Amino acid sequence: MRQFFQPDNPVMRFLSKLCDLMLLNFLFLLSCIPIFTMGASISALYYMVLKMHRDEEPSIVKGYCKAFKDNFRQATLLWLPLLFAFVFFGADLYIIYNIIPASYLWLQVPVWIIIFILLSILIYAFPLLSTFACSTKQLLKNAVLLSIGNMPTTIFFVATQIAIAYLCMVSGELMVVFGSLALFFGCAAMAYFYALFLGRIFAKCMNEDMAAG
User: Fold this and answer.
1) CA-CA distance, 179 to 94, in Å (whole number)?
2) pTM score, whole prediction
3) Mean pLDDT score of the chain, rounded to an integer?
4) What's the CA gap between 134 and 78, in Å, rounded?
5) Helix (H), strand (E), coil (C) string for the chain
6) Would you say 39 and 78 are in contact if contact means Cβ atoms under 8 Å apart?
7) Do 122 and 82 contact (CB within 8 A), yes or no?
8) Does the pLDDT of residue 122 top 70, yes or no?
9) How many Cα atoms within 13 Å fall on the side-chain side of residue 32?
10) What sign results for the dihedral spanned by CA atoms 43, 49, 55, 60?
11) Average pLDDT over residues 91-119
12) How far is Cα 72 from Cα 199, in angstroms, rounded to an integer?
């Protein structure tokens, strides 16, 4: 029984990681309450989960708050245009599906392409911001290049987000399930899962830069 409570026990490590993700999830949701702060919140979330993957785990609260503060201005300036774009094109889809005649359904194709591009930028930009210091212009350029250069991963990330959103819209029960998971640890857990891929992508890029240098 004593061995069960040892810090290196796999079960204890899992429970410790789960507790960290629950605390991180709470901080993320709390800091997202003013919608305009979501960019800084996403950046801080990825800052922490990437560190967790590298086994560089400072205090969850201290590390999150520091990353949130350090990246607040740049993350907010990046987030607000993306938020406006998502609202605009989401409204376009609503009009296409519910207001205009069915003969114009083909208009959804370019809208979905634009949404895919925006989601691709969103997926890479904020983790990049949490890891590298660069201008917003360079950040967007790198996000686009990474999304194109890692297209299978990008499609997987985007598809999972769209699938979850779709399932929540078509089923009230699934909305409750996903909402409950998101409330307790789901947002941090998804970021932690994504960071497994993003960490490898970033490490590969840094190795290539060192080799080129």
Assistant:
1) 22
2) 0.87
3) 86
4) 13
5) CCHHHCCCCHHHHHHHHHHHHHHHHHHHHHHCCCHHHHHHHHHHHHHHHHHHHCCCCCCHHHHHHHHHHHCHHHHHHHHHHHHHHHHHHHHHHHHHHHCCCHHHHHHHHHHHHHHHHHHHHHHHHHHHHHHCCCCHHHHHHHHHHHHHHCHHHHHHHHHHHHHHHHHHHHCHHHHHHHHHHHHHHHHHHHHHHHHHHHHHHHHHHHHHHHHHC
6) yes
7) yes
8) yes
9) 19
10) positive
11) 88
12) 22
Min mean pLDDT across 47-61, 108-122, 149-163 is at: 47-61
**What is the predicted pLDDT for the residue at 29?**
92
Contact (Cβ atoms closer than 8 angstroms) between residue 38 and residue 83: yes
Q: Is 43 exposed, middle or buried (0-12, 13-18, 19+ CB in 10 A)?
A: buried
48 pLDDT band, cuts 50/70/90, is very high
